[in-house]
């Protein structure tokens, strides 16, 4: 795997990988990871990059601002979904890519939805994973996550989900203060009317045991050219790298012009 590169996204340094398929030429797919994760945890370690490049795609994965090797910012206003969608679009600009498939998981799915709504001319198809009706309803994660991330080590978290995010963030060696700002700034929803305006093909993939995402079929029903992929027996953390998830995405991509 080649190392990370970086570029200037409107004043913010964004790190990314750009992995061609074996034959060197393939349709690009932009991968956008979830909260407190990074490109490696979300897409490399789960075999997504390998599966996509073996299937003939050019896999591009960024570290979102505040995550991984990208620049850390501490103002919640810097982490709006629109700002992070802007980083993704500027990465396509930087790589001189006119249109790409865009796949995001969890927070990355939220960013993907905003990209698809605001920059439809850049999107071949959109793959929204780990996010269903909570994109509309704004529910999902309990309060206290940002506070748990900022608390001194050993401080009891206010609820099990907050504790899990703190543990995950420490495992990924994340900047906890940057993540707290991101959590406070990135929870934008989309209305049913906005979802009805999405014109590109969409796949919504959610594990059947996922308590964070909301209904995948419910979200897909609100988007004109969308279908749902239910990943049996998987929750929010285990659905992302599940083989049925990869198989369903590859079949969806293969059906796109």
TrEMBL record:
Gene3D superfamilies: alpha/beta hydrolase. It comes from the Bacteria. Residues 27-126 form the AB hydrolase-1 domain. GO terms for molecular function: triacylglycerol lipase activity. InterPro entries: AB_hydrolase, AB_hydrolase_1, AB_hydrolase_fold. GO terms for biological process: glycerolipid catabolic process. Pfam families: Abhydrolase_1. Keywords: Hydrolase. This is Alpha/beta hydrolase. It comes from Methylobacterium tardum.
